[in-house]
């Protein structure tokens, strides 16, 4: 039969590692899929999705800057997509377009299974209050941390975000960078500061021996956040594991088969 077709829609999209990751998953699981890159004009997302549906594609991943538009376009949303307010995984079905968000599950999977760090009972600091931070909150809360603190440059955004997640049985608090108090077990940088080579102004005392400091951004070299965290005793981690795990979760959503990620993640890391 004809292979099921998928793609990643973004602008820009040339740098995306998703085609490589999904090709590896397809090979590993024996699932016959084709996965391509799809560059959409900034004002042409909906038209591209219509074309993909009409051409018989089975689904698509969605990246910058279309995740909010994808949520608006989907005819049904998973609970985690609704909580995130954003969609990174679309499934084209006979009954419509299903929207899901696997980014937060990817973050949690990377922390638990690749870093080997528990979230239950721990003190977690989420830095940033944009789309990536929002998508991480429900999956983090479902692991039962002792507390989740959200710190953001624009304090009001963190306050609004914290207030909208206060019904999950875990204390969720907003805090300014300056008022952050004590050490955290897990610190996640969900800001885009690293893209500009910037460091969010975190007090060094949030880090210590035993802290996992994870930057959602992936770059060949450690980001300023990762270097700052490591200088204050934390173990550091970039966003590559999260990227591979969110892809594995999307593959599972589409194909009902969960790929192994360990070997691929190791192969994608440049030798130290
Ligand atoms: P948004 O534009 O939605 O949010 C940006 C956030 O960063 C805001 O909280 C903003 O604060 C903060 N910020 C920006 N610049 C600075 C700075 N110089 N100092 C302090 N805070 C700053 O971006 P996204 O949430 O979509 O993406 C954030 C990051 O997450 C990106 O680097 C992206 O690559 C990464 N990501 C990684 C994924 C993975 O699989 N590894 C998946 C998804 C995202 P303010 O509100 O004050 O403007």
What does this structure look like?
This protein is α/β, with parallel strands linked by helices and 272 residues long. The chain folds into 2 domains: 4-101 and 241-268, Rossmann fold (3-Layer(aba) Sandwich), CATH 3.40.50.10860; 117-237, Rossmann fold, CATH 3.40.50. Helix content is 36%, strand content 20%. The protein is built from 10 helices and 12 strands. It has a 6-stranded mixed sheet, with helices on both faces. The mean pLDDT is 96. Bound molecules: NADPH dihydro-nicotinamide-adenine-dinucleotide phosphate. The site of NADPH dihydro-nicotinamide-adenine-dinucleotide phosphate has 28 residues, from helix 5, helix 6 and helix 9.
What characteristics describe this protein?
10 helices; single chain; amino-acid biosynthesis; Rossmann fold; six-stranded parallel sheet; binds NADPH dihydro-nicotinamide-adenine-dinucleotide phosphate; NADP; NADP binding; Shikimate dehydrogenase (NADP(+)); 272 residues; six-stranded mixed sheet; alpha/beta; 2 domains
Brief summary:
Residues 119-194 form the Quinate/shikimate 5-dehydrogenase/glutamyl-tRNA reductase domain. The chain is an alpha/beta fold and 272 residues long.
Which helices and strands, and how do they pair?
Layout: E1 4-10, H1 18-29, E2 33-39, H2 45-54, E3 59-62, H3 67-73, E4 76-77, H4 79-84, E5 89-93, E6 96-100, H5 103-114, E7 123-127, H6 131-141, E8 147-151, H7 155-163, E9 172-175, E10 186-189, E11 212-215, H8 224-231, E12 235-237, H9 240-255, H10 262-268
Parallel strand pairs: 1-2, 1-3, 4-6, 7-8, 7-10, 8-9, 10-11, 11-12
Antiparallel strand pairs: 3-5, 5-6
The structure holds NADPH dihydro-nicotinamide-adenine-dinucleotide phosphate.
């Amino acid at each position: 039969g004809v292979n099921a077709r998928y793609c990643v829609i973004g602008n820009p999209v040339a740098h995306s590692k998703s085609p490589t990751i999904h090709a590896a998953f397809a090979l590993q699981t024996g699932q016959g899929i084709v996965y391509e890159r799809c560059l959409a004009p900034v004002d042409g997302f909906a038209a591209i999705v219509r074309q993909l549906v009409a051409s018989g594609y089975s689904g698509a991943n969605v990246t910058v800057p279309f995740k909010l538009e994808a949520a608006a376009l989907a005819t049904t949303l998973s609970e985690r997509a609704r909580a995130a307010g954003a969609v990174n995984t679309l499934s084209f079905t006979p009954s419509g377009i299903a929207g899901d968000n696997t980014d937060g599950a990817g973050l949690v999977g990377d922390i638990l299974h690749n870093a080997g760090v528990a979230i239950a009972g721990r003190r977690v600091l989420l830095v940033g209050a944009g789309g990536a931070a929002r998508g991480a909150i429900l999956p983090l809360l479902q692991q039962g941390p002792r507390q989740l603190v959200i710190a953001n440059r624009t304090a009001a955004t963190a306050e609004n975000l914290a207030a909208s997640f206060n019904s999950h049985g875990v204390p969720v608090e907003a805090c300014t960078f300056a008022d952050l108090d004590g050490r955290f077990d897990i610190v996640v940088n969900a800001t885009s500061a690293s893209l500009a080579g910037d460091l969010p102004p975190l007090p060094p005392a949030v880090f210590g021996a035993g802290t996992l400091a994870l930057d959602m951004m992936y770059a060949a070299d450690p980001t300023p956040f990762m270097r700052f965290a490591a200088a204050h005793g934390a173990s550091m981690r970039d966003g590559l594991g999260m990227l591979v795990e969110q892809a594995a979760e999307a593959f599972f959503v589409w194909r009902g088969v969960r790929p192994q990620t360990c070997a691929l993640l190791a192969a994608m890391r440049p030798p130290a």
